[in-house]
Amino acid sequence: MKQFLLLLKKEQLENIRNYKIYWIPAIFILLGIVEPTTNYFLPQILESSGSLPEGAVFEMPTPTPEQMLAAIMEQFQTIGIAVLILAYMGTIAGERKSGTATLLYVRPLSFKAYFLSKWTTASVISLVSVWLGFLAGYYYTFLFFGEVALIKVLQLIGIYSVWVLFIMALVLVASAIAPNSGFAAAIAFGTYLIIQLIDGLFGLNWTLSPVKIPQYGVEWLTGSPNSSVWGAIGIAILLTLLLFALGSWTAKRNKAKTKV
Amino acid sequence: MDQTTMIMALVPIFLIQLALMIFALVDLVKNPNPNGPKWMWGIIIVVINLIGPILYFVIGRKNY
Amino acid sequence: MNIVEVENLTKRYGGETAVEELSFILEKATATALIGPNGAGKTTSLSMLANLLSPTSGKIIMKKDISIGFLPQYPQFFPWLTAIEFTELAAKISGVDIKQARLQSIKTLEFVGLENAIHKKVGSFSGGMKQRLGLAQAIVHRPELLLLDEPISALDPTGRREIMNLLKSLQQDTTILYSTHILNDAEEMTDQLLFMRDGRLIEQGSLKDVKKKHAAPYIQIKFGNSTYALEFVSNHTWKCEVKENLVLLPVSETGPTMQDVLYVLSTEKQDIIGVEFQDASLEEIFLKVVANK
Question: I need a labelling partner for C141 at 20 to 30 A (CA). Which of C7, C87, C223, C257 fits?
């Protein structure tokens, strides 16, 4: 615990001094705002671009506010997660590659504390970014498309947060395994895409699959909660805990790979 | 929606993008050892909207 | 008291043997120099002692919960931390209590000569400053065992001298094992010598023993010309060697002492240019040992 707090402070300082604490939230806020805004102005943009034949009447169904929030989440699922992977791919692999980890590894270091301090910091920044992004997006959706009950939005944010925590554990495990940052990003991206692909292809009846968490969030937004949502969340938490164990163990096992 | 509300809605988007750009540029100027030539990063940050500053922070910064 | 006992330590990477059957003992509060050419296995050996690498076979027996300080040859630091922030973190991870850690960090940074850079970010440090900070982080928690990989080879002669003096002042209560290829400096701080080549230990012992074994010190008499030298040799039964106008008398238990030589010379009216005590340098010995094996 003592080492966890010590290392947590180090990670916090790092994230402040490399500005991640500022630019990651900024990107999520932007993603949240841009989606409803472009949707709102899309008909006007198309009209003014003159690509429509003379006299054609442009009819496009106006999205509901719920659809807009789902679209924002889609942005987070693609660009948002990509940004998080790129931002944290080097967390462990980079320290080993550069040799900065060596001076920590020669000490009686708890690799559990080491891994968890990194996951906690990355997760806090990612979660705050996602929340701010959703709230900003929610405000814009309200402005352009109408109201959604705040409680519904908070539900979506809450459920999606579990998914983000799981993904961050995945990113850090990738960083513990890989010999360098690029490799870590490849492992994280690869796994992220493959689990979605597998779930999409074969997982029609896998109602407890954590991959369905974002989708459940959207379903709850528009109607009633899927009965499997809590089960899926439980499994996601369980998997996250397993990833902690895997990450600490791999980080320790790979300590010999640090540059001396 | 009237004109003013619309402008009020659009202003934050430009402000955030501008802030990221300025932030990245200031950091680039102070960076003693970026990952690649400074002028190249300068162009990337200014020209490629949003992605430019992110690329700089992720790849170009080298954590000095 | 033995702080470390190394028995048949071996490290292989695939088919390559980096270290083979290394055995030695480090006694409490002694300094041991690990000497050998590049690629001899010094860094690998130190990394195993620092518990960064696990040996392929063999044993390292250490006192339980021994505290270790390690300085890699090229220490790398988080550039965004200040010197004090890093040494404090290092001290705390090594178990120094929170209040002590700050005090000890400041003291240590002053000790290594970084008093003007305590609050500077390490990213702005020069190579020499990083080497000093490297030493600081290795000693900030007052380790019982200090492992240093080429601690002075990256420094200029003045810095070298300074750091050697610092290390010598630590020697009283710290067990030091350091690798080096700058043999002149090693000579000043060595209770034990370990010569390595191709992953193997080719010679070990105290500086005195190794010198005695491979190159005993001798008394050198320089005569005006070689005739006097030969004359001197024929007049005495001492075991000696003649090199033109030089006579070399090895120092040994049965041989003459400096006093004997001076006494004899004072009674003989010969053309003498000088009498000197000559000691083989570590470098000569090392070259000799490496050539012999």
Answer: C7
Is B54 close to A27, i.e. CB distance below 8 A?
yes
Nearest chain B residue (CA) to A24: B54
The CATH class for the domain spanning C2-206 reads alpha beta
For C165-188, write each residue's pLDDT tens digit: 899 999 888 999 999 887 877 788
**Does B32 touch chain C if contact means CB atoms closer than 8 Å?**
yes
For A105-126, what is the mean pLDDT?
Answer: 97
Q: Taking CB atoms and an 8 Å cut-off, how many pairs form between chains B and C?
A: 7
Average pLDDT over residues C65-94: 95
> Could you give the CA distance from residue C157 to residue C154 in angstroms, rounded to a whole number?
10
* Residue environment code for C22-52, b if the CB has 16+ CB neighbours within 10 A, otherwise e: bebebeebbbbbbbbeeebbbbbbbbbbbbb
* Nearest-Cα residue of chain A relative to residue B51: A27
* pLDDT at res. A59: 65
pLDDT in tens, C12-38: 998 899 999 999 999 999 999 999 888
For chain C, the domains span: 2-206, 213-292
Using CB atoms, which chains have 3+ pairs under 8 A with C?
A, B
Cα–Cα distance between B53 and B22 in angstroms, integer? Answer: 9
Q: Give the residue on B whose Cα is nearest the Cα of C79.
A: B64
> Within 10 A of A104 (CB to CB), how many other CB atoms are there?
19
Q: Dump pLDDT digits (tens) for C197-241.
A: 899 999 899 888 888 787 777 888 888 888 888 888 888 878 888
Inter-chain residue contact A104 with C93, CB threshold 8 Å: yes
Contact A102 C90 (CB under 8 A): no
Residues in B touching A137 (Cβ below 8 Å): none
Cβ-based contacts of C75 with chain A (< 8 Å): 99, 102-103
At the second CATH level, the architecture of C213-292 is: 2-Layer Sandwich (3.30)
Q: Does B35 touch chain A (CB under 8 A)?
A: no
Alpha-carbon distance of C126 to A108, in angstroms, equals 29
Are the Cβ atoms of B1 and A144 closer than 8 angstroms? Answer: yes
Contacts of B54 in chain A (CB under 8 A): 23, 27, 83, 86
Chain B partners of A19 at a C-beta cutoff of 8 Å?
23, 27, 57
Closest among A216, A122, A223, A104 to A175, alpha carbons compared: A122
Residue by residue, DSSP assigns chain C as -EEEEEEEEEEEETTEEEEEEEEEEEETT-EEEEE--TTSSHHHHHHHHTTSS--SEEEEEE-TT--EEEE-SS----TTSBHHHHHHHHHHHTT--HHHHHHHHHHHHHHTT-TTSTTSBGGG--HHHHHHHHHHHHHTT--SEEEEESSSTTS-HHHHHHHHHHHHHHTTT-EEEEEES-HHHHHHS-SEEEEEETTEEEEEE-HHHHHHHH---EEEEEESSHHHHHHHHHH--S--EEETTEEEEE--SSS--HHHHHHHHHHS---EEEEEEE---HHHHHHHHHHH-
In one-letter notation, the amino acid at residue A208 is L
* ipTM of predicted assembly, 2 dp: 0.88
CB contact under 8 A, B9 and A27: no
User: pLDDT value at position B2?
Assistant: 66
Burial of C274 (0-12, 13-18, 19+ CB in 10 A): exposed
